[in-house]
């Protein structure tokens, strides 16, 4: 979309004090009539249809990049750049972690680095009027901080790409300092939860606040429960703004495919044939075969003799562990991209070209494919048509820029043999400045092979524990390494309630005792894993 102008809304404490149009390096005042900041933003998005709209707190302006230079930082029309919440604002929304305990978007952001987050700052930001119009600025909300959080959450689920952009500051390392910000009141946060997660999660949030703070915000929760339903996102309008994946020439790409495997020679052979049939093929495929049982002989020898249209490196290691296997493969990387694959997935012929095209069009470090089981319809599973920010990361079918892999530091071998390693890697990738998208347009079938892989026994130190630790200590460690207290409590509460929901009520007393013992056991083994020290 061609943008004819830039509109700048200046604020003082969230109140509009001036609106101007920027063109040819000059600003001219714009008359917008009365109304609060939400009303003004909604009206400008509707009336200035081809403009880019920026908002900023006037007192911060001397510390910001000149606002006329902000549009140059936008990568595409679904980008929404913002300054990030002030520290006091982050503390005000910290209890969101009670209900969104898996989401990297509600974690405290790293200073001085870009970070995908729908926690849109009222201190300053910029987006196309078309994107704001499609996501829907709810003019019924009197609070600008609440309206931006609401817009960010709804929009990101459908393809809007909000992110903290430190280059909006003159000194990107200073990143705003410790100014107080506008904050979100308790009833406004409750309204956000009601609108974005539902009344069930509002009750969950209230219970979490009771356990966490011993003073549940009953009045705030009641006010939030009465919040009106949010406006729908115009997905067709967002789709019209999406950058189309660019063409990727056929043939070898500057890409290495990484495949850890254990006991699945037939699945590996099928996957190699799928990679060979790609229009855009990897230059190198590294297969790390784990053979923990003597005599450690490879089962993949016949594949080495194949005539493949890429360089195939078959490595055999005498131990088990997908994290260590992937890290071993990272020593063999060549090119700009890394394609992480499980050994029992099947790829359509356009998969690699599509993933590279999306990553380049959106300017992101990682793209996850739409992984589905054989009996699932990927179109129904995707939940939308546009690539979009994703709170998860799955190494079963993901394209990652090689510098991002190196910045993240590989996979943490302490998390081998269980679950949590993908989540941990995705969080470190994001905190290093990378963004992760989920692409519904790249379906990848996960065969879930009945043997091998994670279905092979792993020598966890707790395997002979008479009281099995639950949840998995690796899952618990992946969370303890990154999560603030509210998110840890939210996960614990959700886990406990889930166990009780699956148990008949007359067995609850015994189940609660067992649950507590297993949780303490998981914590002890989590401490044991953590004592091995940080990832090398």
Describe this structure in words.
The chain folds into three domains: 5-241; 251-454, Spore Coat Polysaccharide Biosynthesis Protein SpsA, Chain A (Alpha-Beta Complex); 473-530. Helix 4 packs parallel to helix 5, helix 5 (186-196) crosses helix 7 and helix 16 packs across helix 18. The two termini are 46 Å apart. By secondary structure, it is α/β, with parallel strands linked by helices. Strand 1 (5-12) and strand 2 form a beta hairpin. The strands form two sheets. Strands 9, 10, 11, 12, 13, 14, 15, 16 and 17 form a nine-stranded mixed β-sheet that branches. An eight-stranded mixed β-sheet has the order 3-2-1-4-7-5-8-6. The mean pLDDT is 92. It has helices at 37-47, 87-92, 129-135, 144-156, 186-196, 199-213, 218-225, 235-241, 265-276, 301-304, 322-330, 351-362, 378-382, 402-408, 421-431, 473-480, 485-501, 508-530; strands spanning 5-12, 15-23, 26-29, 51-57, 79-82, 115-116, 124-128, 161-164, 251-261, 280-290, 311-317, 337-341, 345-347, 366-372, 388-389, 397-401, 436-446.
